[in-house]
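Colleagues,

For the teaching module next term, I've prepared a clean inverse folding example: a structure given as tokens, and then the sequence designed for it. I'd like students to try predicting residues themselves before seeing the answer, so please don't circulate the second half yet.
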């Protein structure tokens, strides 16, 4: 049971962190290199497709990381679980209002407000990326220490 929780934590966190890193380094910069109206048009369906996947992966990584900590007692599992788990409340507290404004069809797609919101979203998403990468590093180091 221990190794199942550890592998599940590592894999789900790795998938979350990898997807977040891709969005931060590739997708969002590419989106932002276009006209604001085009960037916003791409953001909306992309966000809707990614949101469910990200929540599920973060929840699995948090739960299985916590279970691995309970089974092994290594603090790396606990801190990693808390870091990856923190992306959920971080999103609700800091990003959700930006998401809602970007998804609002009343937002003028060529406005300065839309540009500011897209830039703000990119900075906020970078925080989630860093949290998940740190968690993945902690999970990987815990796996190596237990090898």
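(Answer key — instructors only)
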């Amino acid at each position: 049971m221990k190794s199942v929780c550890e592998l599940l934590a590592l894999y789900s966190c790795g998938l979350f962190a990898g997807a977040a890193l891709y969005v931060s380094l590739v997708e969002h910069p590419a989106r932002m290199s276009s006209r604001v109206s085009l960037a916003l048009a791409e953001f909306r369906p992309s966000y809707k497709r990614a949101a469910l996947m990200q929540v599920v992966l973060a929840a699995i990584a948090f739960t299985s990381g916590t279970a691995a900590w309970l089974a092994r007692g290594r603090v790396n599992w606990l801190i990693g679980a808390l870091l990856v788990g923190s992306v959920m409340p971080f999103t609700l507290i800091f990003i959700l209002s930006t998401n809602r404004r970007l998804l609002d069809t009343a937002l003028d797609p060529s406005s300065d407000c839309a540009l500011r919101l897209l830039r703000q979203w990119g900075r906020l998403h970078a925080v989630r990326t860093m949290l998940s990468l740190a968690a993945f590093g902690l999970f990987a180091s815990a796996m190596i220490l237990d090898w």
